[in-house]
Amino acid sequence: MRHVITIFGEAEKGQYQVPHFFKNLPQLLDLLGNPPSDSEGISFAVQALLFRRDLIYFRVEDEGFSPPDYYPGLKYLKEKAPILNALCLPGVGDPKILDAVQEICHAHKSLLITSQKDLYDYLTAN
After folding, report:
1. Confidence of residue 87 (pLDDT cuts 50, 70, 90)
2. Which of 27, 69, 83, 120 could form a disulfide with 60 if both were Cys (CB 3.0 to 4.6 A apart)?
3. Half-sphere CA count of 95, side-chain side, radius 13 A
């Protein structure tokens, strides 16, 4: 059984707020295209696929700054994802989003992948 990682990130193309399932790089590039500048989602996705992880990718308009794009994906993960080993939300330091993610991580016993910068934003938020 392969591990499943979910990433929320920007992309050049693809639908917003719906899960995109990938098992290899050609699928990812065909559906989502190139990463926008200053975006980390596609880079994390490439790494996940290179390490032979199954990938669920949710396209968001602006990593960390478009909360309405995150909630449908989080609802999907909470209600329909059978297995989830890790979540990656680059650019997200918003406590409301991360609190919602915490519940999903506990339910699936999964990891939250974040950067030092995003963790700092979360810890210093009002």
Report:
1. very high
2. 69
3. 6
